[in-house]
Design brief:
The protein has an 18-stranded antiparallel β-barrel. A two-stranded antiparallel ribbon has the order 10-11. The protein is elongated, with a radius of gyration of 39 Å. By secondary structure, it is mainly β. The N and C termini lie far apart (82 Å). 7% of the residues lie in helices and 38% in strands. It has helices at 2-8, 24-34, 119-124, 151-154, 533-536, 606-612, 652-658; strands at 194-210, 233-249, 259-273, 289-310, 315-327, 336-348, 353-361, 381-390, 398-410, 416-417, 423-425, 436-450, 453-466, 476-491, 494-503, 513-514, 549-551, 558-561, 576-588, 591-601, 620-631, 639-650, 667-677. The longest helix has 11 residues, at 24-34. Helix 1 (2-8) packs antiparallel against helix 2 (24-34).
Length: 678
Amino acid sequence: MQQVIALIAPAFGITQPTPMPMMPFQVLAAVEAATPGAQQPQATTSAAPDSASQQVDPNTTALPGGETEADDALIDGRRRPGYTKQLPDKVDQENPGAVNAPPPEAFYDKYDGEGPMGNLALDVGVPDRWRIVSSLCPQKDKTTGKRDLSLYTLFPRLQHVCHSSLDPFHHNLLKGDRPLARGKRPGFLKGDDWFLIAGAVSDTIVEPRSFPIPVGNQTTSDPNQIDVFGRSNSLVLAQTFIASVSLLKGMTAFKPPAIEYRIAIAGNINHVQVPERRVLFVEPSKGTRRTDGFVGLQEAFVDYHLGQYDSKRYDFFSVRAGIQPMQSDFRGFLFNDNQLGIRFFGNRDNNRFQFNLAAFWRLEKDTNSGLNDITQTPRDDFVLMANVYRQDFPVVGLTSQLSATWNINRERGQVAVDKNGFPVRPALLGDLRGRNYDVVYLGYAADGRIGRINLTGQFYGALGHDSNNFLTSGPASIRAFMAAAELSYDIDWTRIRLSGLYASGDSDPYDKVEGGFDAIFENPQFAGADTSYWIRQTIPFAGGGRAISINGRNGILNSLRSSKEQGQSNFTNPGTMLLGVGTDFDLTPTVRVSTNVNHLWFQNTKVLQVLRNEGSIPREIGWDASVSAIWRPHASQNLVFRLSGAVLEPGRGFDNLFSQQGKASRFYSVLANATVAF
């Protein structure tokens, strides 16, 4: 027993006379040798050292059989000078019946695959990484036209990756999940990594609504109507189809594409019914119904990747030329449109900095659909834009944006009439003279969160010059501003929102300063967006101008312009104020219910008083309440159904402008929308 303790003591750190510790396998061998009845180890074949080379350390421990193993117990990485460890004899292993390695002739010496795997695919002869699994899918027999599905009995889960090319929810060549194969792409596409992304969208709208509709001057559809405003109910039906295709070279996911070609065409059919004449057409004889259609080119651009700042982070800069989408700020308060232009953009510092330099030449729009009309000469209206974004500034989680936008309008000598016969430039207000203007918008925006509070904020200052004030017939300076903010707080599946907006109005229409804020082409996602009655509907300014609206469709500002699509910006307007509260309830992953209540005012009604020849007009517009339900059956944007309803309870100012026999009634808007996308 003492012999055993003496052998194993060094392995456990116990001080013994022998200073050289033993390795665990040596301890086990010694224990087995010293244990009664233990099986003795078989002798190993090794070359016995000669007496000259055999050196015995006096401090080594002798094992049974006279062997000395102290040198084998040395710590790894150490060796004793002058000592050479003896290696065992070579062992040859025989493996009868084993399969030899295939000869070199068994491997492909010529690449005939489809993908961009380069030398890897050349060496091993497998499909590219996108087709490794899908290449196993059963193919149609050329004679019978059927697929042999017996493979699914061995690999039942394989059928989850074998789908029709029309299925948008799984890997699909048409939506850029796999690159185009060699021999199956146009010849002008050089190199590999070319992806095709095809899209198709169907957008259906059914919209019953009511708004103040003035009785026609020359005639009316109701001979007994003697008031200024007639019946208010109307109906809008619209169907839009959008088809798009992109060809891009790159990795599509983590790396910006090297080059992209994209085109998108939209076709729209719309039908409108109103109760009064001279609402849809300038000619009274054309009635109260209109069905119209139009096809517009919404996107057609080339995006070229100029280079990278840092290949590890994929910071880049690119140039894009053609008809392209552009949004000047986070929520679309100033400019949100698809226009003809050139844009230089990129990022820096691991995407913490992003920037845009862009110039746009505004295209004419179709009157009834709002789509781009490239058959007409572009407008003499130009937009120059520069902005920079910084993430996590001034606090972590918040992105800040600084922007400068210059709108140059040179349409003073033009007269433009829309397809329904109504003049749109110049607007039928005041002296009816054309005008030019230059206005620079300086803006700061923030979007993100501060702790648990979500924040979106926007400020714009508008500075410039107008060649003709339509009330004074003289030049005027432009000095206006707007500020908007939305705070929200999340509690489980509920989000509570507070919204506020202030856009300055013109306090003195006859001075040489225009102080009403107006945008270039607004489409704000704010305060309920197009679910809101005031944002969704257009309110005609009856009695103060012809073919003029107080606000525009899908717009929040009270700008007094003919339309945002074809009209000019107007900085002699009453301004806008809004306070609102809203909630979003995610009842399930596929169902969301939203509510919103806004209180609206004119910021200053002096302009309205002058145009209507009234001594005073209260500022209150009224209460706008709305509710909407959105259902996404597949929890994606491929299939979306929405139903919303909104009511406007008029305030004193709205009553004053649109009273019918003493008091304006409530107005409503119902929107049923179905979107199907591939």
